[in-house]
């Protein structure tokens, strides 16, 4: 059993046996490229890992929280479009097919295509 303990002084989530220098280097490089701050949480076959780099606020000195929430707003549109286009590439969705074929429960106009919504 692994117990995750939040270290408020370092603003990290240390996890036993989870030294991930390649991830730490990646978030530091993102900050060095001009981003204010980065928080990263990974759950994969190696387990869980969380850390941050940079600062939480412009002009501040506090690191971004690793236990915080991020509101991504309109970015979800990009994620959704990417997923839809992946399904198109797999042949599971037709770009010019009526959306009503995939979402019949919404009673959408049959003239509205997947392409139109992207």
Automatic annotation (TrEMBL):
<feature type="domain" description="Beta-lactamase-related">
    <location>
        <begin position="23"/>
        <end position="118"/>
    </location>
</feature>
<protein>
    <submittedName>
        <fullName>CubicO group peptidase (Beta-lactamase class C family)</fullName>
    </submittedName>
</protein>
<dbReference type="InterPro" id="IPR001466">
    <property type="entry name" value="Beta-lactam-related"/>
</dbReference>
<dbReference type="InterPro" id="IPR012338">
    <property type="entry name" value="Beta-lactam/transpept-like"/>
</dbReference>
<dbReference type="Pfam" id="PF00144">
    <property type="entry name" value="Beta-lactamase"/>
</dbReference>
<dbReference type="InterPro" id="IPR050491">
    <property type="entry name" value="AmpC-like"/>
</dbReference>
């Amino acid at each position: 059993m692994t117990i995750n303990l939040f270290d408020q002084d370092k603003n990290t989530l240390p996890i036993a046996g989870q030294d991930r220098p390649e991830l730490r280097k990646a978030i530091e490089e993102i900050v060095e490229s001009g981003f204010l701050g980065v928080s990263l949480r990974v759950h994969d076959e190696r387990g869980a890992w969380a850390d941050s780099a940079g600062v939480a606020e412009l002009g501040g000195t506090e690191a971004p929280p690793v236990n915080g929430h991020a509101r991504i707003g309109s970015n979800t549109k990009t994620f959704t479009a990417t997923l839809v286009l992946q399904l198109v590439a797999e042949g599971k969705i037709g770009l010019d097919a009526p959306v009503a074929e995939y979402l019949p429960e919404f009673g959408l106009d049959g003239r509205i295509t997947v392409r139109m919504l992207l």
